[in-house]
Amino acid sequence: MDGVLVAAALASAFLHAAWNAAVKATPRPAEAMAGQMIMAAVVSVPILAWTGLPDAASLKWVALSSTVNAFAVATMLRAYDAAGYGVVYPVGRAVSVMIVLPMAALLLGERMGPAAIAGVAMIASSLALLAASACGERGIPARGLAWTIASGICIALYVLCDAQGVRAAQSALAYGCLASIANGAVMAWRQRHLGNPVQLVASFPVVTVASGFASMASYLLILWVWDQGPIAPAAALRDTSAVFALLIAVFWLKEPFDRLRVAAVLLAAAAVPLLRLG
């Protein structure tokens, strides 16, 4: 991967970790999640008016991605209820990484060298170590594990949908804005029992507005990377968001930094040059 693409994927990962941590820290994450997705849709409307619609060939991917994304959010929230953020986030991302790699090869014909494959495996291992650290001796309930795996599968599916969609769209910006509008509309409808779109955005206004902008920037960055480079290593780099989430927790929230977490950070850091070479 080109160095600029690696940097963009890592920037996307950091922004993704930041907005997820902010949403999870609210007293009612479901409302905050819906509010930030609606805010991202609002931000996208004037940009899409400027860019125009993406190529018609990408519209089916927008529809499929938005549908799968709704299931990903729903399963993730269920998993959070059963197992907690520290386990669900890294395990779900690790499952996604390990699915995207073979599926990108099978469906899209992508081939990676040994270094890139090793880098993806190291990132998946890093995420597994983070989950082990969060889990400790308590274990993870079977229900929580099932929802987490389901979430990881959904994440992998919408990664593949978006990667194909952005390549068909002829414009990462137009595709990202249309997909964000679709995601916001679907989420507003699914969470209508919690309030109307204005109420959802206003539930935690600082978080929803800031997270809406951060999530939009993160999404556009990774779409651009998928449009320009290979999907699987870029998706793996984007999923280092769990490592960034750990660093935010340690340096900002002053959480403990045990040996498993140190190993996870070192593994993820070592994977980056391998993905660059591969």
Characterise the protein shown here.
With 278 residues, the chain is an all-alpha fold. The protein has one domain (3-277). It has helices at residues 3-24, 29-51, 59-83, 85-108, 114-135, 142-169, 172-190, 197-203, 205-228, 231-238, 241-251, 259-277. It is globular, with a radius of gyration of 18 Å. The chain starts with a helix and ends with a helix. 57% of the residues are buried. The mean pLDDT is 87.
Helix content: over 70%
Question: Treating each run of at least 4 consecutive H or I residues as one helix, how many helices?
Answer: 12
Low-pLDDT windows of residues: none
Globular, elongated, flat, extended or rod-shaped: what is the shape? globular
Total number of strands:
0
Mind describing the biggest β-sheet?
A: none
Structural class: mainly alpha
What oligomeric state best describes the polypeptide chains here? single chain
The figure for the number of domains is 1
Radius of gyration: 18 Å
Strand content: under 5%
H and E order: HHHHHHHHHHHH
Keywords:
mainly alpha, about 280 residues, globular
Question: What are the SSEs and their pairings?
Answer:
Blueprint lengths: L2 H22 L4 H23 L7 H25 L1 H24 L5 H22 L6 H28 L2 H19 L6 H7 L1 H24 L2 H8 L2 H11 L7 H19 L1
Helix pairs in contact: 1-9, 1-10, 1-11, 2-7, 2-8, 2-9, 3-4, 3-6, 3-7, 4-5, 4-6, 4-10, 5-10, 5-12, 6-7, 6-9, 7-9, 8-9, 9-10
